[in-house]
Write a structure and sequence with these properties.
Blueprint: H1 2-35, E1 39-48, E2 54-65, E3 69-71, H2 73-83, H3 86-101, E4 109-113, H4 116-121, H5 124-135, E5 142-147, H6 156-167, E6 171-177, H7 183-189, E7 194-197, H8 199-203, H9 210-224, E8 227-230, H10 236-245, E9 249-251, E10 259-260, H11 264-268
Parallel strand pairs: 2-4, 4-5, 5-6, 6-7, 7-8, 8-9
Antiparallel strand pairs: 1-2, 1-9, 1-10, 2-3
Helix pairs in contact: 1-2, 3-5, 5-6
The structure holds ligand C2E and calcium ion (3 copies).
Length: 274
C-alpha cells in the first residue's frame, strides 16, 4: 500500500508543483501590486427606470500587471481574500471610489463592493468613515454592496458593522440577491436599502419559472419600500421586461460597460451638470 501511495504521489507531483508555483507567483505579484499601486477602478452606470438617467456608478476593481496585462477581479479577489491583502486593497477601493464620486454631479451615487472577509477579519465602518472624511463625499452618496454570504455565519460582528455603516448615513445594498442559501431570512436580519438581483435570473429569463422569480423580486422590493436593481441587462428586450416587472434601476452592457473614470465624462455627459 505504501508503494502505491508513493507512485501515486509521484504521478501528481509535477502538476501540483506547477499549480503551487503559479499561485506563489501570483501572490507575489499581488503583493507588488499593493505596494506599487497597480490597481485602477472602472465604473459602470446604473440607470433609473423611470427617468432613464444615470443615478449611480458601480466601482469595479482592475489590476494592471506589467507582464500579465489587465486582470479581472474573479482571478485575484479569492487570492486577495486568502492572503489578507483584501484589506489594504479594499481600503484603497473605498478611498478612490469616493474621491472620484466627489467629482461627479451630486445626484449620482457610487457603489463599492466589500468582501465578507473584510468584515470577518477587520473593521469596515472605520474604513468607510475614513473614505468619506478624506473625500468629503456626502455619506448618502455611497452604497456598500455586500453578497448574501456575508450573513452566512451567525455572528453578530458583521451585523453590528452593517448597522454602524448605516448610522454613518451610508446605504447598504444586498448584491447577487437570490443566489444564497436563505435569501429571504437575510432580509429579516438587516434593513437593506436596495436589492440587486443576481444577473443569472435575467440571463435565464426564458426558462420556465424564472420570470415568476424576477417578478417576485421586484414586488418584494416594492413591498419593503426599497429600490431594486436588475443587473446584467444586455438586450432591449431584457430591459423592457425588467422595467415592466417594476425594477427601479437597471445595469448592464446595454447601458454601458465598466469604463475608466476619465472616460465617464465623454460617455455620459457628466459635465453638463457642473
Ligand atoms: P458583481 O459585483 O456582481 O459585479 C458585476 C459583474 O458583472 C462585473 O464583473 C461586471 O463587469 C459584470 N457585468 C456588468 N454588466 C454585465 C452584463 O451586461 N453582462 C455580463 N455578462 N456581465 C456584466 P467584474 O468587473 O469582472 O467583477 C466580478 C466580481 O468581482 C464582482 O461581481 C464583484 O463580486 C467582484 N469585485 C469587483 N470589484 C470588486 C472590489 O472592488 N472589491 C471586491 N471585494 N470585489 C469586487
Ligand atoms: Ca456588485
Ligand atoms: Ca452582482
Ligand atoms: Ca458576483
Amino acid at each position: 500500500a505504501k508503494q502505491d501511495g508513493r507512485s501515486c504521489a509521484r504521478f501528481f507531483e509535477p502538476e501540483m508543483d506547477r499549480q503551487l508555483r503559479e499561485r506563489r507567483q501570483l501572490e507575489q505579484k499581488l503583493r507588488d501590486a499593493v505596494q506599487f499601486q497597480r490597481f485602477t477602478l472602472h465604473f459602470q452606470p446604473l440607470i433609473k427606470s423611470d427617468s432613464r438617467q444615470v443615478c449611480a456608478f458601480e466601482a469595479l476593481l482592475r489590476w494592471q500587471d506589467p507582464e500579465l496585462g489587465l486582470i479581472l477581479p474573479d482571478r485575484f479577489i479569492p487570492l486577495a481574500e486568502e492572503t489578507g491583502l483584501i484589506r489594504p486593497i479594499g481600503d484603497w477601493v473605498l478611498i478612490e471610489a469616493c474621491r472620484q464620486a466627489q467629482l461627479w454631479p451630486s445626484d449620482i451615487r457610487v457603489a463599492v463592493n466589500v468582501s465578507p472577509v473584510q468584515f470577518r477579519t477587520g473593521r469596515v465602518p472605520e474604513s468607510v468613515a475614513r473614505a468619506i472624511y478624506s473625500s468629503g463625499l456626502e455619506p448618502s452618496r455611497l452604497e456598500i454592496e455586500i453578497t448574501e454570504s456575508v450573513l452566512l455565519s451567525d455572528d453578530s460582528n458583521t451585523l453590528d458593522q452593517l448597522n454602524e455603516i448605516k448610522e454613518l448615513g451610508v446605504r447598504v445594498v444586498l448584491d447577487d440577491f437570490g443566489t444564497g442559501y436563505s435569501s429571504l431570512s437575510y432580509l429579516r436580519r438587516f434593513a437593506f436599502d436596495k436589492l440587486k438581483m443576481d444577473k443569472s435570473f435575467v440571463q435565464e429569463i426564458h426558462e420556465s419559472g424564472v420570470l415568476a422569480i424576477v417578478r417576485t423580486v421586484a414586488k418584494l422590493g416594492e413591498c419593503l419600500g426599497i429600490e431594486t436593481t436588475a443587473e446584467g441587462i444586455e438586450t432591449e428586450e431584457q430591459a423592457r421586461c425588467v422595467r415592466e416587472e417594476g425594477f427601479t434601476q437597471i445595469q448592464g452592457y446595454l447601458y454601458g460597460k465598466p469604463l475608466p473614470a476619465e472616460e465617464l465624462d465623454t460617455a455620459f455627459q457628466l459635465g453638463q451638470y457642473h
